[in-house]
Amino acid sequence: MKKILTALTLSVLAATAAQASEGHIELKKSDWSFTGPRAHWDTMQILRGYEVATQVCISCHSFKYFSHRNLTTAGFTEDQAKALAGKMDMDVNQKLLSGLTAEDSKETYGLVVPDLSVMAKARHGGPDYIYSILTGYEEAPAGVDVGNGNYNKYFPGHVIAMPAPLSDGQVTYSDGTEATLEQMAHDVATFIAFISEPERVERQQMGVYVLIYLVIFTALAYVLKCAIWRDIKKKS
Ligand code: HEC
Questions:
Q1: Staple partner for 189: which of 102, 131, 198, 236, CB 3.0–4.6 Å?
Q2: Is 48 near ligand 1, meaning CB less than 6 Å away?
Q3: In this structure, are 170 and 91 located in the same domain?
């Protein structure tokens, strides 16, 4: 037993050391409506995140797996989804694409700007990663040359081609919420989490039901076991 424990401790230590040597960056952790036992999509927050995405991010990033119809999964009615699409002169089934072409993107940023529609699934930390990046811009420390890029505390390597996209008061929310940097970052990360994995909430709710079922089943099995043993003891 002692040997097993020592081996376990050593492997945990080795894993931690490996992470540290890979330059593991601790992300900011946030509370999300779509995690935990009461997971749900907050429709108003998704609307605000959508407003940030379509007023800011869309000038560089596409959301090619998103069409306005997807909003119905988050509790919007078909008419609301159509109205929002209409405001952008779009059809409800049309993909949300940026006007920035791959060529222009390469010329300006030296790379093709990544699509954001599966970003919450594609990166370690998902929504926490997006939230951290958006709020992680800082002055570069003395001696760090960022070239044409920008210093970001949470981006691997710390030099990111994206200029800080959000600053206080940048968007106008239709529900009157104050558009602070933190608020916009949290809202747009929620929107991206939703479009990356719309089924996520259902899966978590299912997990809770399975747990409840298992608890009830175990209790019943225990009661049955007691009853059977009572009978056997009586007979013997
Ligand atoms: C002016 C153009 C521009 C705008 C506006 C913009 N981005 Fe970016 N974004 C970029 C570029 C360029 C990159 C690639 C950075 C790199 O790899 O160095 C990037 C990268 C990212 C990444 C990191 C992706 C990765 O590979 O890990 C995230 C997350 C991101 N953007 C989110 C957003 C969100 C959310 C918005 C809207 C609030 C937004 N961006 C607005 C240009 C932009």
A1: 131
A2: no
A3: yes
- Give residue 220's domain range: 201-236
Answer yes or no: is 66 within a domain: yes
CB neighbour list of residue 154: distance below 8 Å, 6 or more residues apart: 25, 27, 28, 129, 132, 133, 136
Task: Note whether residue 14 is domain-resident.
Answer: no
Max Cα distance, the chain (Å): 88
> Is the Cβ atom of 160 under 6 angstroms away from ligand 1?
yes
Is 209 found in the same domain as 183?
Answer: no
For ligand 1, whether the C-beta of 166 sits within 6 Å is yes
Q: Is there a single domain that holds both residue 231 and residue 142?
A: no
Cα(212) to centroid of ligand 1, in Å? 41
pLDDT in tens, 22-41: 568 899 999 999 998 889 99
- Check residue 13 and give its pLDDT: 54
Take atom 34 of ligand 1 and give the residue whose Cα is closest: 57
- Report the C-alpha gap between 101 and 60 in whole angstroms: 9
